[in-house]
Amino acid sequence: MLGKLAAPVLLVPAQVAAWVLLLPVNGLPVARLDVVLLTATVLGALLSGCGTLVAAFTQREGPTQAVYTVLVLGLGLASLLAPQDPANLIARASVGTLSAASWVTVGAYAALAAVVLAGAVLVVRSRLRADQLRPGAG
To answer: pTM above the 0.70 mark?
Structure first.
């Protein structure tokens, strides 16, 4: 179960790194690749945890996709309330203009991702146990 949750989280920084390696080819250096990768990983973890929670509660493909889409749109809108939204944060890291608000925002996203991931693990474990205890299971 953790492998299925870890796979998309680990793919995010790999994809970001692949794209970032192409930027200098076009004359666009990235000043703080570490912060870009950290932010992308944290946001990937947050979205993966949200997707896992949605799937655990809806348990059907069609509704899961619809709920997840609405959730991602809501998170995108809510991120505009943060001191720096994700796109602004990654842009600032890329050009090397991070501020104290940048670090507070990364920390807030990381804390939220940790809570969501922990919740996802607990919910999925609980659901798996309940399925195993149900008569006629397995």
So the answer is: yes
- pLDDT given for residue 92 in this prediction: 95
**Domain locations in the chain as residue ranges:** 2-133
Alpha carbons 106 and 24: distance in angstroms, whole number: 25
Tokens of 134: 């149900």
Q: What long-range pairs does 50-54 form, CB within 8 A, spacing at least 24?
A: 50/75, 50/116, 50/120, 51/8, 52/4, 52/5, 52/120, 52/123, 52/124, 53/116, 53/119, 53/120, 53/123
| Tens of pLDDT, residues 108-121 | 999 999 999 999 99
